Amino acid sequence: MKISPDELLTKAAELKDSGFDMLEDVTAVDYKDRFEINYRLRNISSGAVETIKIDLSREEPVIASLVPLYRGAEFQEREVFDLMGIVFEGHPDLRRILLPDDWEGYPLRKDYVID
Amino acid sequence: MIGKDTLCGKIMSSIKTQQIELNMGPQHPSTHGVLRLILTLDGERVIACKPDLGFLHRGIEKLAEKRTYLQFIPMTDRLDYVSSMTNNAAYVYALEKLGGIEVPERAEWIRLIVMELQRIASHLVFYGSMALDLGATTPFLYAFREREDILDIFEELCGARMTYNYFRPGGVSRDLPKDFHAKVTAFIKKQREKLKEYDDIFTGNRIFISRTENIGVLSAEDAVNFSLSGPALRASNVDYDVRKAEPYSFYSKLNWKPQLGTAGDTYTRVVLRCREIEESLNMIEQALDMIPEGELKCKLPARLTMPKGEVYHHIEGSRGDVGVFIVSDGSDKPYRLKWRAPSFINLTCLEQMVKGMLVADVIAVLAGIDIILGEVDR
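^ Those are the sequences you sent over. The predicted structure of the assembly is below.
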C-alpha cells in the first residue's frame, strides 16, 4: 500500500497489532525526482506479507523511525541512512554503518557517480 | 560476603573501579572475518556491545547497477562465500520471477540438490568454527574433512570449489557428472554416521554444554521483533522456514519438516543445525530419485533484458532469509538491486543477547549466530 510519510507510525502500529510482527526488509530506491522507501512486514504465524511504500522528497528525505515498534529496524535503517541518505527521526543511534564515519555522499543515490 | 566495617571491607570500598572499553576485532580469530565489537566492560561483565561493520564493504549493490543481469551472478558468490549456491539461487529466482522465465524440471531438481548440499557444507563450517572458537580443535578438522567431499562434488559439477557461478536464469550451467549419484549417495551414508560421531565428541560434551547452555538466550517474541531469521530464529521456537512458508523450487514435493528448538540459547542453535544437516540429507536422498531426463536450461537471448517493474524474492539460505529486491527499468541492467543479508540483520540482536554475560560468552554467542562478513558488509 502507498501512504504518506506522516501516516507511517500509525499505520505500522495498526499492522503490528493485527499480527504483522516482523519487519522483514527496508529498502530505499532513488527515482531521481523522489525517493521511495519500501517496508515489508510479515505475519510470522500466517506468512502474510504487507508492503508499505512511501514517497519522500529529495530535498528533505526525513521519515519516522520504526525502531520503537520493530527493533529489527535498527541496523536496516542505519544502512538506508548510510547508503541513501534518508534520515530516520527517533532512531536511537543513527550513524553510518557500512561506510567510514567521514565518508562524503550517499553512494546508492543516482547522482553519486562511479566509474 | 565481607562486612563493610572490617578492614578488608574498608579497603574494598576505597578501591575505585571503572568501566573499560575493549575492542574485539577487527583482527580477532573468533569474529570470523573483519568484525569489530566495541565492548563496554565492568570487570568481565559486558555492559554494552556495539558492532562496528563495513571493513569488507565493496558496494555490491552499487556495482550491480553497472553490470548486466548475467554479469552479476558471479558477484553473488562473493556475498556469503561459504554458501554461494544459495546466493546464486536467490538472485536467479528473483530474475525468473521478474522475467516470467520457465525452468526445465531436470534443472530445478538439480538446483534443489545442490542447494541442500550447500546448506550441509555451510552448517559444517559453522559446526567446525563453533568448536574452534570454544577451544576444541578436533571437531573442526572432522567437519572440514566431510565438507571436502561436498566441495569435491561441486568441483566436478561446475569446476569451482567456493565461487560456483552455477545457476543461470532458466536453468543451470552444466549437467551432472556421470558419477554424481554414486558420490552423493556415498556421502549421505558417510555423513549420517559422522553425525553420531559429532555428537559424541562435541555436542554431547560436558564442557561444550556448560559453555553454551542458557548463554545468549532470546525469547520467541524478541527473535521475531529483531527480524532474526534462519536456524537462530527456529532455535527460539518460531516455526518459520521460507522453504515451508513460501515454497520455491520443489520443496513442497518432498517429505520434510523444519527443525525447531525451544530454549533459544546457543546450545540449541548448534544442535538444531546438526539436525538440519540430517534433514537435508533426507531431502537429497528423496530428490536424487526424482531427477528426470531433459533440458538443463531454457533458451534465452544472450543479452538478457528484464521487463519494467519490481520484484522481491526470498529463499531460505544457510544463515537465514536471503531476499533480493530488483527494480528494473526495462534495460539489461538492474536499476536498483537490494540484497537482504540475513547475517547483517541477525547481528542487530547481538547486544541484547550478550548484555550481562562474560567476555568469553560473547565469543560463543557470536559463533552461534553464524555470521559471514562477506554478507554482513556486502
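Chain B has 16 helices and eight strands. Residues 139 and 201 of chain B are 7 Å apart (CA to CA).

Shout if you want it in another format.
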